[in-house]
Amino acid sequence: MKTALLLLLFSISTIVYAEVITGWVSEENCKEQHTQPGGKDCVKKCLRGGTHVGHPEWTPQKMVFIAETDKKIWTVENPEPLKTYAGERIQLSAKLNPASNTLEVLEVVPYRKPVPFHLFRFRNGFWINLHHFLRGTARRELHPESRLEVNLVVELNEQEKKDWEEALEYYKINFAEKDLLFDKDLWPIKNWLGDSENNPDLQSSGHEALADVLKKAAPVYRKYWWPEHQRSNQEWIDVAQRLLDQFGSRIAGPIEAFYEGWPDEFTVDVTVEAGWAGAYTTDNPVRITHSSTDSKLQDYAALESLFHEASHSRDQWLSDKLDAAALKVKQELPNRFWHAVLFYTAGEFTKKELEEVGIHYIPYAEKNKLFERDPASSICAIQKKWAPHMNDSQWENLVSALKDCRPE
Questions:
Q1: Going by DSSP bridges, is the β-strand pair 102-109/73-76 parallel, antiparallel, or unpaired?
Q2: Which residue segment(s) compose the domain that 376 sits in?
C-alpha cells in the first residue's frame, strides 16, 4: 500500500486514515476469485441479486474491495460510487478502518485524466433491440444448444403469449437462419430499426409486414424484457464511454494514422445480443452493432472491440494494400490474412496503452485463441515483421515474412 495521506482519527482502538489504493471491486461471496479480467458479469449479478431476473431468492451480496498488494479484503461502506466498476481493477481514494476491515470511498482516481472522446455515438434503441432479441430467441428455439447471456424469467398471459409466439414464428421463417453480418438483405432492416431508436410510432419504411409484426410484439417486449435490456445497454455504454474518455484518443491516434484516416464519427447501436460474434459492422453507411452482455466484450475488451469494429470501415483499403504487396513480392496470402492483421493491430495498440498505466491486458484474439484458426504462417509473420513496425506500415516486409514462416 502507498503511504497514508492523512491521519483522520486516532483513538486507543481505532485508526482511520485516507489512502490511495489499487485493487479490484468484487463482492463478499466470490471475494478474490475475480481479481483478473473477465469476472465482471459474475460480480454484477451477485451484487444485484436475482429479483430482476425472476429469482428473488438470490439475495444481493455486499460489495468488497480487494487490495492488489496484499489481497486484503475491505467491505465497502458506501458502494454507490463504485456501482459501475463491478469486477474492475481501479484506483481509489478511501478512508480505511483496519479495525473493522471497512473502507469509505472518497473518489475513484482515473488512470488517465479524462478527456471527452466523441468518436463513437452510442444508441440504445428499442426497435433494433426487439429485432435482435426476436431473431436470437427464434434461433435458439431452432438451435437449443445456443443460449443468451442474460436470461430473464417471465410469465406471459394468454394474449401476450399468442402475440409473442406469432412474432417468433415470423422470425423463425424469415430471419433465424440468416447471418446478421453476411446476409446483406438484413443490413437495411437493421439500419431502419436503428434509426427508429425509441420512436413509439414505427414507420414501415418499405417493410410493412415486419413493421406489423414488431408493433404487435412491442407491448410484450416493452413490459417484460426491455427495462432490463435498456438498463444493461446503458450500463455498458456508461462504462465504455468512461474508458474511452481516459484512453480513447491515445488508442485512436496511432490506429487512425495506420489506416490513413477513417470517418469522423461511428454510430454504435448497443443491443443485448448482436449475433455469434457479439459485435459486427456493416457499411453503406458504416454502422457498428455491439452487444452489451457478451461476457468476452466487457470493460477493456470493449475498448479493443470498438476500435476493431471501427477498423472494419477500412477493410477494402487494408485488403488492397496486402494484395498489392503480395503481387510485388510474388507471395500468396493465407485466407483472410487481412483480418488477422486487423485483429492484431487493434489488440496491440489497445494493449500498449493500457500497459502504460499498469493494466495487464490480453488482446481478444490471443485470449480467445482466434489466431489458432488461421494458418500458422499468418501469426508468425505478423509477430515477426508487423509487431515491431506497425507504425511504419511495411507491407512488403510483412508479406515476405510469410515465406519464412512456412511450416516445415
A1: parallel
A2: 314-404
308 within some domain: no
Phi, psi of 343 (to 5 degrees): -60, -50
Q: Are residues 254 and 326 in the same domain?
A: no
- How many helices and strands, by DSSP H and E, does the chain display? 13, 10
Q: pTM of the prediction?
A: 0.89
- 126 and 253 together in one domain: yes
In this structure, what C-alpha cell is assigned to residue 322?
496486402
| Same structural domain, 148 and 263 | yes
β-strand partners of 105: 94
Instruction: Output the 3-class SS for 330-392.
Output: CCCCCCCHHHHHHHHHHHHHHHHHHHCCCCCCCCHHHHCCHHHHCCHHHHHHHHHHHHHHHHH
How far, CA to CA in Å, does 261 sit from each of 213, 318, 395? 41, 12, 17
* Grid cell listed for 338: 487481412
Q: What is the pLDDT along the chain (408 residues), one digit of tens a residue?
A: 444 444 444 443 457 888 999 999 999 888 777 777 667 778 888 888 766 666 667 788 999 999 999 999 999 999 999 988 988 889 999 999 999 999 999 999 999 999 999 999 999 999 999 999 999 999 999 998 776 655 677 899 999 999 999 999 999 999 999 999 999 999 999 999 999 999 998 988 889 999 999 999 999 999 999 999 999 999 999 999 999 999 999 999 999 988 998 999 999 999 999 999 999 999 999 999 999 999 899 989 999 999 999 999 999 999 999 999 999 999 899 888 999 999 999 999 999 999 999 888 999 999 998 888 777 778 888 887 777 766 666 788 888 888 878 654
Q: CB within 8 A of 209, min separation 6: which ones?
A: 170
Distance CA 51, CA 47 (A): 11
- Does residue 144 sit within a domain? yes
- CA–CA distance, 231 with 291 (Å, rounded to integer): 13
Same-domain status, 63 and 123: no
CA dihedral (333, 334, 335, 336) positive or negative: negative
**98 and 120 share a domain?**
no
Domain count, the chain: 3
Neighbours of 57 (CB within 10 A): 7
Residue 127 belongs to some domain of the structure: yes
Phi, psi (degrees; rounded to nearest 5) at 75? -80, 130
From the number of C-beta atoms within 10 Å of its C-beta (0-12, 13-18, 19+), residue 248 rates as buried
